[in-house]
Amino acid sequence: MRILLEKFSKSFGSTKVIEDMDLDVGSGEMLALLGPSGCGKSTTLFSICGIHRPTSGRILFGNKDVTDLPSQERNVGVVFQSYALYPHMTAAENIGFPLTVRRVATAEIRKRVAEIAALVHIDNLLDRRPSQLSGGQQQRVALARALIRRPDVLLLDEPLANLDAKLRLEMRSEIRRLQKETGITAILVTHDQVEAMSMCDRIAIMKAGEIVQIATPSEMYNDPRTAFVAGFLGNPPISFLKGTAEQGEFVLGDGSIRLPLAALSGMPDGTPLMLGVRPEHFGNGGDVPVTGRISFAETQGRENLYDVMFADGSVLRSIQPVRGDLKPGDDVRWNLDSKAAFVFAEDGRRL
Amino acid sequence: MAQKRRTSANFSSLPVILLLGLISLPLLLMYAYLFIDTVTDSQAGSLVPSQFTLRHWSFLWETKTGKPNIWRVTFNTFIFASSITAVILLVSSMAGYVLSRLNVPARGVFLAGVMVLHAFPSVTLIIAIFVVLQWIGLYNSLIGVILVKAAIDLPLGIWLMKGFYDTVPWEIEMAGLVDGASRFTVWRRLVLPQIKPAIMALGLFSFLTGWSEFILPQVLAPGAQVQVLSVYLAGLIVDDNNFDFGTFKAVGVFYVVPVLILYVFFQKHLMNIYGGGTKG
Amino acid sequence: MRTSRTLGLVMIAPAAIMILLFYLMPVILTGVFSMTNMSTATGISGGAFQVTQGAVNRLRTEMPEIADAISEPRFVIDEAGIAAVEAAGLASAIAAELRTEHLGEVHASRREAERMIKALKERPSTRQTKQISDFFNRSVINTRFESREALMEGLKKLGVTLTPEQQEAMARATYTGWVWTTDNFRVIGNSPDMAQVFVNTAFYVAVTLLLFNVGYALFLAVTTHYMPATTASIFRAIWLLPRITPVVIYVLMWKWLTWDSGFISMFMGQFGHPPKNYLLDSAYNAWFFVILINGFIGASMGMLVFSSAIKAIPEAQFHASEVDGASRWQQIRYIILPQLRWPILFVTCYQTLSLLASFNEILLSTRGGPGRATEVWSLAAYHTALQNYTGNLEYGLGAAMALVLVVIGVILSLIYLRVFRYDTLISKPLIED
Fold this sequence. Notes:
Oligomer: heterotrimer
Radius of gyration of chain C: 35 Å
Strand content of chain A: 25-35%
Shape of chain C: elongated
Radius of gyration of chain A: 24 Å
Helix content of chain A: 10-25%
Number of helices of chain A: 8
Distance between the termini of chain A: 36 Å
Largest interface: B-C, 109 and 117 residues
Order of helices and strands of chain A: EEEHEEEHHHEHEHEEHHEEEEEEEEEE
Distance between the termini of chain C: 7 Å
């Protein structure tokens, strides 16, 4: 079912958290709300499931306006960060609870709990209480509980934040599998870009209560609209150089380094700029040579990560296949891929 | 973090233990003799019991003239204490939830009021309450004194319950709502079970304070029909015609044993409540 | 759609009603009663008008003639009296003559009336004369009138007519119910007895608080902190006993300890001291035990609060200070005590209030004795209003005394509220429905 937010605003007292947000999530799509903490992504989620009331604007599920509908009548499934399992109930009772409060017959509940438990692979754990389950198992129970009512919408609030690294990897694909199998429209709230990129059809990056950009993960990675977006996606992260435009060239700080960039042609001289270069675009393959000194080296097993410092003190990061010939202090002359570098205005707008 | 030893090898704790033991001696002595004296007789001027006797316990099977029957009194005390417990648990578990979680007008004012009352010395109101109960005809009735005692203990109960509810994660309630449960169902089926231990502790505490209460029943319900153990025992002690410490103590032991049993079994719970409900 | 609001109002209603009935109303009524002279004598509901001897005495200073007039018996020849004479089976001529000749006469004294009766044609005997005169006795002394109008009517029948001012004075003097007055506060302000009780209270609260509720509680908390866990919990359990034990039994044990047949007497007897009641033999001893009895109970709350506050101090601080070479005393002085500032303030506030108000223990042990040596304010209020030996319970005065405590209580608990920043304890509900 399609989810539509129109001119949605939310304030708490006098603090405006979200102002005039528009969001359109297609039926069967999985969308990530990605952003740093405090950007309003959880507030958006809570407003969609009815725990918060919008200050103004409309929320629609399909063609139905649910803005004033209480949570109980929205038919949404939510997986909370802490899973919010009911500690005094067994896994089966937890999963069956949404049906119990809807007064579904006991036999029917038992049948559907068994089905859904099989779907999330916890059929053998149904008699346990949450405290007797591992984090991943609790997560699966929470998912089952969210799905059993066949919700129109599945909302996931940082569902992987409390899991250790290995489980997180497993649950990532698990949640995606379930979402695909059930064909349910889902919104994932996360501050982890890897999670967002690996699990979702589209990502909406939020900053200070606004959606900065909505796009598919690869579009967003390759074509960020702002420096914020570029900085948020990618690991190791993109590095930025500050400089000015001069005769179609990017001039770094003190002028010691000049980079001819096609994108800058026609720009008035002296325009302050930011250049964003991803680590994989600085090294051996590029077209513009730059000289600097290795200030930091770190091996990541398959690849090595180098920080290269230039005369004015600014730094570019480079990621390269493992090589043993370089150490901090060495001078290098590497190439920068000028076509892949992003040019941003001083305020972070992509040019 | 359970019960970690805080002592360090650098210091010996023996001196403080001895010192505190010494100070605690009078207290222990009083308790020891409370029990010893009920089943023994001693020579005048001696502290060493000389013979075993059960005569001090005769109040259990003989009703003294002018005094109510001990079983009647015990029954009254039990009714008194358990009714208070029931009222306090019911009323404060609801009010505490509202103050912790629900959006009602004047919630802050009410909470401040509860907090002030919790510290307020309510026994100063006893004169007015006495007159009020006479007016409405509840003077010398168990119901009247139960309501008064419950009301007086209510602010503490509400305050404690609010604190307990505050520890229940919001997400549990949110999950309940999106699962389709009403606020009432969420409270009843999801939140209340989380604070069972707290309810248990508050219930225990209310029962004990009800069981021990003296001044309210003494003033508001002194009649023989509604007498409770504290009033009964105080009446025995001031009665100069039947001065017998052995009997006083036997009644005292009869009265205190339920308290001590509950205390021994639920010490941890009670420590928490006696120490405050005052996480302010 | 504000379901939670409705639900909230319903769920908080019982608590609100109980608090309204048993806190707010009593607080207001304490104020109201304190402005009256309500007592056993006046009753608590409205009164009647009765010309008692006392009322006459009061009136005598203001209007002596009228006082004399109403205190004298009056004999009025009226229909009711004549009917009674007829019913008494006397010669019917007597009644007939009284009706025709004497109806409406008022005789100022029995002698006068009897002279008239004796002079009747039927010549009643002396015994009969007395009997007949009794039927016409309309004296107001000790007659109850349900309303002011009835009183005035009765007086008028006697031939006593009063000016409005005199009526006012008469009504005031003969009213048996309670009236509004500020005398209670005058009594509290002027009586040296009250001043003594006030001093007693201040002494009692200050000393008990300092020595036990805070001082000894701190001592217990700190010493048990430095003990192995089991030993510590045993000591804490022992010192919680006085609070757990019902107060009647607790005080009974102290009585056993201090009475002339009790432990101390016997113990001192071994050294040749004659037995005596150590609880009540002197004001000094009485205070000593009163403070001990209350202090032992009061120490437990502080002990628990302070203990948990000490437990909350990160253990690393203790290890670090030991490594730094701090002695145990220095640890207490520089690490524990500074971090107990708030708990100490809290306990002080809280316990001041409960010490001010509670009189259970003193009532049960010394009853304020010997004499009134250990009478404290709340106990004095209790004695005044609810239990005294003269039998006249002065609710009004007692309420005025209680009001003093109520006012102190309200002020202190408001301070307490401010100090503990209740606003930080209330947070907005996260679910908005």
